[in-house]
Amino acid sequence: MSKPLTLESAAWAVAALVLLLLLPMIFSATTVDWANEVIYWAILCLGVNLVLGYMGYVSLGHAMFIGTGAYFLALFVDFAEVPLGWSIPLVVVGTALLGLVVGAIVMRVNRIQFLVITLAIAELIHGVFHQIRATGGDDGHSANDTWRVDLTWFGGWDTSESTGFYYWNLLCLLAVMLVLWRFLRSPFGSVLVGIRENEQRMTSLGYNIAIYKIIAFAVSGAAAGVAGILYAQNLQSVNPEPLTWQVSGEALLMVIIGGRKYFIGPVLGAAFYIVVKHLLESITSEYIIFLGLAFMAIVAFFGRGIAGYFVDLYVWAKRRAGVGRPGAPAAEAGE
Amino acid sequence: MEALLTNLLHALQLSMLYFLLAVGLTLIFGLMDTLNLAHGGFYTIGAYVGWRITTWGGALLAMFFAEPGLNDFEFNRVALQYSTEFFWAALIIAPVFVGGAGYLFQRYVLHPLSERGRETHLDFALLTFGLLFVIMGSMELVFGTTPLSIGMPALLTGSIDLFGLNYPVYRLFIILMGIAIAILLYFVLDRTVWGAIVRAGVDNRDMVLGMGINITKVFAIVFAVGTGMAALAGVIYAPGASITATMGARILVVTFVIVVVGGLGNLTGSFYASLIVGFVDSLAQAYKPTVEIFGTEIQIDLELYGIYILLAVVLMIKPTGIFGSKGAT
Q1: What residue ranges do the domains of chain A occupy?
Q2: Hey, is B272 helix, strand or coil?
Q3: pTM for this one?
Q4: Which of A61, A228, A265, B240 has the fewest C-beta atoms lying within 10 Å of its C-beta?
Q5: Do the beta carbons of residue B46 and residue B232 sit within 8 Å?
Q6: What is the ipTM of this complex?
Q7: How far apart are CA A152 and CA A277, in angstroms?
């Protein structure tokens, strides 16, 4: 497993947090909108990477979790009329249950089949929500009232406008990261890495790997479900769009570009992807060509992604300063 | 009765279209262990290249044979009339072009990477997945977002009498094409030395290498044949539908369902699975019965997910697919 939390990495984390807290004050309102977009993608990617980076299975079906997460919120709040405060945990439980069911179906297959089958099941669920008339079918459904949490009792925290909503998003991101970090650093996380490296050995050691895979898939789905909640709250509506395979695909691109071997990789990847996408959009609407090529280059030549570059840079800087031990291995999550 | 027969023939036609894609994907996976996620992209390129050939051909002919003094609008109309017959040229040129691209991609991108030790299947699946996005974006950049179409050549328009049924010639053509390709492939793979090399490569790659056969070349040729067949499917499909950059996406998912149901890397399996999936998909679109549950009438509309239910059921019963995957015992 990774190195213990040192004073230094804690200092880096605090610095990053301060920067994120100050973001709306430093940058323009557009940047805050981008940041809101980045955060739900980042949470989705963290979920994807739990399965991809730690367990070693490529899922092309995580759109089903962000999509159903968004739809569950709509169904609970607007149709079942559950209070918003109860709906949110219910959505997380709902997507986790979906993950358990789907995980039980797919846990027996090999890695290539896994990719195909998660894609097929996501398409199946896309088809279902496409047809349900109650939620507007293809057109989607807009929030009756608001789906954003009312936090005005907390020092007038107004989530209805962009900056206030940004802090709510940030809170959710940190919560998800904290939970996943704890989850992956537990013995359970070590077993997942063991499954990635050698499934037969893990079975021989007496682990019931099917159970581990199913639970990991459910946790990953629940994380993506949180992304769905934020997606719905951001748009104040739901539609079948986040259920399409392109969403799973783009999440995969983000995770690989960011660096699947690092815990922070998916977050960096999502931020890079969304920022580049918006910057390129002013030049060409076919930004996907550039991002697709970047993705291919990273898969082919530099599997560690942006996070890997950061680590290299950090090691290089330390060596130059004469602090680091020469040849000290870069710390990689889950290794 | 007539409606049933028509639906069955439609299902057969859809199956044959799927087969052209599935067999290429299966060949490539069977030999190289590469799940080519860009397969739908090659299909899309095939359709666009076909469109380009017909429009250029039509314009060229119009330049020589149209009456002089036509205005732009009339000239374009004449060019469009001429263009339909270039479908036949497209049917040959597009697969060759795309197959060539596939050859180069395998020979100079995928193979050198596998030589450098990036030999996990998943890395290649990811790489081709990136290529799929690049292809979709490039097609939109080059050909625009407006859907395009290829005109039906004269020979394929109209319908003929078939078992006392008026059936479109075009659809019959697809069925015959599919069957012809299946027979041709069977013949080549089962009766020729080339086929023997490919079959040996599927079973034991190292042994083939040990026999002094240039496996790199075999890989690249098989990749070319596979992607070429995807392009052929793209051209064949084009007169009946519209060409868009995302046309490869849905059909790619269906193709995946076929290769998993038939067993990954299993060629005969992919043929039967194409039939099964094609029929399920086609009949789910044709029949939408209504049933009464608790006094309310509910229409069972499986159009969008009939094949996925099939896939889930197959996997729960037999995870290696109905006909068994390569390497599975």
Answers
A1: 7-321
A2: helix
A3: 0.87
A4: B240
A5: yes
A6: 0.84
A7: 34
The answer to whether B156 and B169 are in contact (CB under 8 A) is: yes
Q: With 90 as the cut, is the pLDDT of residue B316 above it? A: no
DSSP conformation class of A53: I
A-B C-beta contacts closer than 8 Å: 118
Q: Are B323 and B273 in contact (CB under 8 A)?
A: yes
Closest Cα in chain A, distance from residue B31 (Å): 15
Q: In A, what residues contact B, Cβ < 8 A?
A: 56, 58, 105-106, 108-109, 111-113, 115-117, 119-121, 123-124, 126-128, 130-131, 245-246, 249, 252-253, 256, 284-289, 291-293, 295-296, 299-300, 303
Tokens of A98: 């979906």
Rounded distance, CA B16 to CA B3, Å? 20
pLDDT tens profile B210-247:
888 888 888 899 999 999 999 999 999 888 788 888 88
Cβ A299–B130 below 8 Å, yes or no? yes
Lowest mean pLDDT among A233-237, B6-10, B177-181, B320-324: B320-324
- Position A1 confidence tier, pLDDT thresholds 50, 70, 90: very low
- A-proximal residues of B, 23-82, CB under 8 Å: 29, 35
What CATH number has the domain spanning A7-321? 1.10.3470
Question: Which pLDDT does position B150 carry in this prediction?
Answer: 85
Q: What residue ranges do the domains of chain B occupy? A: 2-317
- Cβ contact, residue pair B133, A108, below 8 Å: no
Question: CB-CB: which of A252, A292, A299 is closest to B123?
Answer: A299
What is the bridge-based pairing of β-strands A237-238 and A141-142?
Answer: antiparallel
